[in-house]
Amino acid sequence: MGLISAILFGAATPASKAMLDSLNAFQLAGLLYLGAAIAMGPVAIKEKYRHKMFSIASPDIRRLLGAIIFGGILGPVFLLWGLRLASASSVSLWLNLEMVATLILGWLFFKDHLGRFGILGAAGILFASMLLGLGDKTAAPEAGFLIGLACLCWGLDNHFTALIDGITPSQSTMWKGIFAGTTNFLIGSITASGAPTIKNLALALLLGGSSYGISIALYIKSAQQIGASRSQMIFSTSPFFGVALSALFLGESLSAIQYASAILIAVSLLALIRDKHEHLHTHQELAHAHEHTHDDGHHEHVHDEEYPDMRHSHWHEHQSGEHSHPHWPDLHHRHRH
For the residues of 42-67, what is the DSSP string, one character each? Predict the structure, then answer.
């Protein structure tokens, strides 16, 4: 799920670069998220009746609001402003700063453990992103700063959405798309010199449905199961797809600095993948709703109705317990070590 999400999102950077000739940043950001809402709407409504999950508690409302503001409104606009100042291939590689932001925020604020290999990997990706700033025209520092702000916003968004367990990832993506998309599109329409054509509207919505809607929903599912930081490791392959597509369809040439940055990022990802986490830990009593199976060692409850060996969602309770096993910072493992 994480890899498919990365491929879809990687295609968004070169495609968005081409669309900025006919749409301003707010218009395009709004249409991308409205497209995401349209794509996920039918799935979200179907899940309402299949899983009976369409209510959301106060803590999750705050998390969803944070995801909408940072990930849906601010992040895309910063990205598109930066994309106007730099090549799509460089911006694609800069987007690996999202993983650095996600890892650091997770370690500082969201109880998402980071080991020595994780720290080395994050440092390598940060250095590679800084290296890119030396090789992409005079506007590179300004573009890099804007992309860095976008990645910081999306780092917050990643952790907020990974902790939402009252609604499904598709429902979360739909609400995010509706509110963030409408806000940015209205701002863009007010500030634009003219109305976009039907063709540009359709293309932007189509791109948003796939590269934002399907991609975000798959990413959230992955993050809820293995944690935002680890899921972001997989998602960090998306810039490589963006670079390849930029060279293939936009005719952008790749510099020696870009090649060196890509190699450094690949080595850093290997370090992150080696980062392991296992220790004796205690589970407190917990009640929530999310997708799960009964073969993961944490869901031993019984059902009034028979469930086959498949992922399903419902409200359930966990008893307190203590054990040791390799684990990710998923919905059941949010603790300091």
Answer: HHHHHHHHHH------HHHHHHHHHI
DSSP 140-155: HHHHHHHHHHHHHHHH
CA–CA distance, 54 with 317 (Å, rounded to integer) = 18
In three-state form (DSSP H/G/I as H, E/B as E, the rest C), the secondary structure along 187-252 is HHHHHCCCCCCHHHHHHHHHHHHHHHHHHHHHHHHHHHHHCHHHHHHHHCCHHHHHHHHHHHHCCC
Rounded CA gap, 27 and 47, in Å? 30
Backbone Cα Rg of the chain: 20
- What tokens were used for 11? 């295609």
Domain ranges of the chain: 2-96+137-253
Number of helices (H), then strands (E), in the chain:
15, 4
User: What spatial distance separates the first Cα and last Cα of the chain, rounded to whole Å?
Assistant: 28
The whole model's pTM is what? 0.72
Please list, in sequence order, all residues whose beta carbon lies within 8 angstroms of the beta carbon of residue 240, skipping any fewer than 6 positions away: 10, 92, 262
E strand or H helix at 268: helix 256-274
Task: Tell me the residue type at 144.
Answer: G
- Grouping H, G, I as helix, E, B as strand and the rest as coil, residue 292 is strand
Q: For residue 316, give the 3-state DSSP assignment.
A: strand
Tens of pLDDT along the chain (337 residues) come to 888 898 898 888 888 988 998 999 999 999 999 999 999 999 888 877 655 445 677 788 899 999 999 999 999 999 999 998 888 877 887 887 887 888 888 878 877 666 778 778 878 877 877 776 665 554 567 888 999 999 999 999 988 988 887 778 888 889 999 999 999 999 999 988 888 899 999 999 999 999 989 998 888 888 777 777 677 777 777 877 787 788 887 787 777 887 887 788 788 878 877 766 565 556 566 665 666 666 556 666 666 555 555 566 666 676 776 656 555 555 554 444 4
Give the span between the Cα atoms of 24 and 165, in whole angstroms.
35
Identify residue 316 by its one-letter amino acid code.
H
- d(CA 59, CA 142) in angstroms, rounded, equals 36
